[in-house]
Amino acid sequence: MMAFAAAQPDRRTAESRAQRGGGAPAAPATLPFAWAGWRLTVPEQWRPLKIEGDWQRGLVILGDGEAPRMQVRWWRPSRRLDAERWLERQVRRWRCRAEPLTGAAALREAGFTHARWLPAARYRGGERPMWYGVAPDENLVIEAVLDPRAEAAKQRRLAQRVLATLAPATMQTGTLIAAYDVSFEVPEGYHALEHRLHLGDFIMRFGHRDGSQLTLRQVFPVTLALSRRSMAWWMRTWPFKTLRPFAPAGEEADCTIEAGDRILRGIQQRGRKRLRFPLGWIGPRRSLRMAVTDEQLDRLLIGEWDTRREPDAGALRVVILAMNRPMRRREACS
Questions:
Q1: Where exactly are the structural domains of the chain?
Q2: What distance lies between CA 161 and its chain's CA centroid?
Q3: 185-244 confidence digits (pLDDT tens)
Q4: Which of 131, 111, 113 lies closest to 121, judged by CA?
Q5: Maximum Cα–Cα distance across the chain
Q6: CA-CA distance, 24 to 32, in Å (whole number)?
Q7: CB within 8 A of 130, min separation 6: which ones?
Q8: What 8-state DSSP symbol labels residue 99?
Q9: Cα(141)–Cα(89) distance, rounded to whole angstroms?
């Protein structure tokens, strides 16, 4: 079970959008939120109030500074699901009628080919708007609950502007994780194991069925981070417990990552991870750590890849470069 610690979004993109607007009324600022194989586009002031669960099932509560605005549950059935029959059972369960939803076409196109919108589901003596969607190709079931205390007009806006953006977050190259102005793109087959989301320090650990692990970290602002600790300290210090401590295999070396017309500079180090004596022969791992600074985004980007074979430095560079890809695109357009 994973826990969440509150953090604050980076406001620079909002300010730049306001400046580019030249004083004219602008559309509400939004950010992507993606977790466990699904994603949404949410208002910029929203934050995750609670995250629990894993790839198979879990819960996210999103809200602003006033109240929770949306709850999303997800699960992946262990056996084949008769989607239409199951959805009809949910309609009977909540003793309500299913109605058409504005944005249903976008949801179907995104992969939720079976869905029900229940604007007045009866719950504990009251009513709440609920939506169920099944994406068979992704083996994904979603239950979304909108703020029951909001006025009907606001509930409709939430359904049209937020719920209608729901889509699977898996890609041909892997899976997207995004919260605030921080994002990670991990290779196919890697799923989140642990996370620590603190103010200015976002850390995600991903695992693969073959035993490989990928740990990614973003620390910001980088000038403050490096004034307190060295880059080497940030690269070797992780909050997660491990049974296999890192043993360096050589000295730290300089490294670079090409990011368009810019060069991200930093350090890297190879090593080995083994269980403590006398079990060191069981499942040894080879490890590669890399840390670079992205001055444009004012962030320290760190990655560590543990595999049975020697990790590929080029592949780790690709994963690090994929961090904050949507944000880089916005900055490039500004």
A1: 45-166, 171-333
A2: 20
A3: 998 889 888 888 888 899 999 999 898 999 999 999 999 999 999 999 999 998 888 888
A4: 131
A5: 69
A6: 24
A7: 94, 117, 118, 121, 143, 144, 145, 146
A8: B
A9: 14
Residue type, 263: I
CATH code of the domain made up of 171-333? 3.40.1000
pTM, to two decimals: 0.79
* Burial class of residue 129 in the structure, from the number of CB atoms within 10 Å of its CB (0-12 exposed, 13-18 middle, 19+ buried): buried
Q: Which CATH number fits domain 45-166: 1.10.3430, 1.20.58, 3.40.1000, 3.40.1260?
A: 3.40.1000
Question: pLDDT tens across 124-180, in order?
Answer: 778 899 999 999 999 999 999 999 888 888 888 889 899 999 998 876 557 888 887
Block residue for tokens 């009907």: 152
Q: How far apart are CA 223 and CA 299, in angstroms?
A: 8
Compute the distance between CA of residue 225 and CA of residue 204 in angstroms, rounded to an integer. Answer: 18
